[in-house]
Amino acid sequence: MTDLLSVYRGPEMPMVCVTDFEAHARELLCKSTWDYIEGGADDDFTRDDNIAAFKKFRLRPRYLRDVSQVDTRTTVQGQEISAPICISPTSFHCLAWPDGEMSTARAAQAAGICYITSTYASCTLEDIVAAAPRGLRWFQLYVQTDRQLTQQLIQRAESLGFKALVITVDVPKTGNRRQNIRNQLDLKKMLMLKDLRSPKEGNSALRLQMSLIDSSFCWNDLSWIQSITRLPIILKGILTKEDAELALKHKVDGIIVSNHGGRQLDGVPASVDALPEVVAAVKGSMEVYMDGGIRTGNDVLKALALGAKCVFLGRPILWGLAYKGEHGVEEVLNMLKDEFHTSMALSVSSSAAPGLTGERAGKTHPRRRFEIRHELHL
């Protein structure tokens, strides 16, 4: 009887918020993997500020409006998604779950949202596409010093049906992540980088070398990328109006306002704080998205109120993956979608994208749909 009692722990407590998945992932993952996923750069100030910054904003609800039919659908680069809540590019999903990015892709397909696949995925692009052939996928690119390899990656992604190219611009070199150094984490020994290998090379031992990222890549080099692909080009990592204006000048198709989850340069603005500046700079000429610090449906609504077309999730997806594979990722996505639906109804707004409810030809600025104000803490 004593043995039976020691094994029985009662029914599993229900997951009621995204941070519940964080707690479970921390218990399930080894320390070095947890530190790799959670770690920021230097003092982790920007990583933590990404979350804290959302608490400075307050929604201004307007009542006695019909919200009996709330529609969370919207579009990104002309493709419909079930809600403005998608998946950021993060690397090495096999650290969190054996099937890695294949499980993530299946969850994204089931949820009807976009998944940005990382250059540093632990599964091949071919395997990811085969796992979720109907899913909406974008490909995230770290431009390599080997331009031929870069071109092969882009053309391979395009031939496999990826719908956009997301160029990460904030990693000319890797940020100073202290926990990885303390743990002596060497990903080159842990994982084979499959996507930097031609499928014809079989099990060759090509491994990840972060030094392959081209630190000389500049604005004028975008014209070369544009000349070799027909995919829309989105820049990830823009934080200032000056760079947003340069993105307009160079005719890119979108911006993801991001500080890389606080993993690169510490002490930069929280993504949500940088968002209005970038939105104002592009003046509606391109879609603006954001990632960093999204933990609730309220956060999603605040980002949209400040001008984002869509938000992308990083760490919460890995928490869900560690918890229960693709089903855990689905639970995270569905939880945030449900919270966002509730926040819309209570704020009050019936549509996340008016174009999907009879105004396809019109452009409605998010501030006309959701009202928000900034709380100054002096």
From TrEMBL:
<dbReference type="Pfam" id="PF01070">
    <property type="entry name" value="FMN_dh"/>
</dbReference>
<feature type="active site" description="Proton acceptor">
    <location>
        <position position="260"/>
    </location>
</feature>
<protein>
    <recommendedName>
        <fullName>(S)-2-hydroxy-acid oxidase</fullName>
        <ecNumber>1.1.3.15</ecNumber>
    </recommendedName>
</protein>
<dbReference type="InterPro" id="IPR000262">
    <property type="entry name" value="FMN-dep_DH"/>
</dbReference>
<keyword id="KW-0285">Flavoprotein</keyword>
<feature type="binding site">
    <location>
        <position position="168"/>
    </location>
    <ligand>
        <name>FMN</name>
    </ligand>
</feature>
<feature type="binding site">
    <location>
        <position position="236"/>
    </location>
    <ligand>
        <name>FMN</name>
    </ligand>
</feature>
<feature type="binding site">
    <location>
        <position position="260"/>
    </location>
    <ligand>
        <name>glyoxylate</name>
    </ligand>
</feature>
<keyword id="KW-0560">Oxidoreductase</keyword>
<feature type="binding site">
    <location>
        <position position="263"/>
    </location>
    <ligand>
        <name>glyoxylate</name>
    </ligand>
</feature>
<dbReference type="GO" id="GO:0010181">
    <property type="term" value="F:FMN binding"/>
</dbReference>
<feature type="binding site">
    <location>
        <position position="140"/>
    </location>
    <ligand>
        <name>FMN</name>
    </ligand>
</feature>
<feature type="binding site">
    <location>
        <position position="142"/>
    </location>
    <ligand>
        <name>glyoxylate</name>
    </ligand>
</feature>
<feature type="domain" description="FMN hydroxy acid dehydrogenase">
    <location>
        <begin position="10"/>
        <end position="365"/>
    </location>
</feature>
<feature type="binding site">
    <location>
        <begin position="291"/>
        <end position="295"/>
    </location>
    <ligand>
        <name>FMN</name>
    </ligand>
</feature>
<comment type="similarity">
    <text>Belongs to the FMN-dependent alpha-hydroxy acid dehydrogenase family.</text>
</comment>
<dbReference type="GO" id="GO:0003973">
    <property type="term" value="F:(S)-2-hydroxy-acid oxidase activity"/>
</dbReference>
<feature type="binding site">
    <location>
        <position position="118"/>
    </location>
    <ligand>
        <name>FMN</name>
    </ligand>
</feature>
<feature type="binding site">
    <location>
        <position position="258"/>
    </location>
    <ligand>
        <name>FMN</name>
    </ligand>
</feature>
<keyword id="KW-0288">FMN</keyword>
<dbReference type="InterPro" id="IPR013785">
    <property type="entry name" value="Aldolase_TIM"/>
</dbReference>
<dbReference type="GO" id="GO:0001561">
    <property type="term" value="P:fatty acid alpha-oxidation"/>
</dbReference>
<dbReference type="InterPro" id="IPR008259">
    <property type="entry name" value="FMN_hydac_DH_AS"/>
</dbReference>
<dbReference type="GO" id="GO:0005782">
    <property type="term" value="C:peroxisomal matrix"/>
</dbReference>
<dbReference type="InterPro" id="IPR012133">
    <property type="entry name" value="Alpha-hydoxy_acid_DH_FMN"/>
</dbReference>
<dbReference type="InterPro" id="IPR037396">
    <property type="entry name" value="FMN_HAD"/>
</dbReference>
<feature type="binding site">
    <location>
        <position position="36"/>
    </location>
    <ligand>
        <name>glyoxylate</name>
    </ligand>
</feature>
<feature type="binding site">
    <location>
        <begin position="314"/>
        <end position="315"/>
    </location>
    <ligand>
        <name>FMN</name>
    </ligand>
</feature>
<feature type="binding site">
    <location>
        <position position="177"/>
    </location>
    <ligand>
        <name>glyoxylate</name>
    </ligand>
</feature>
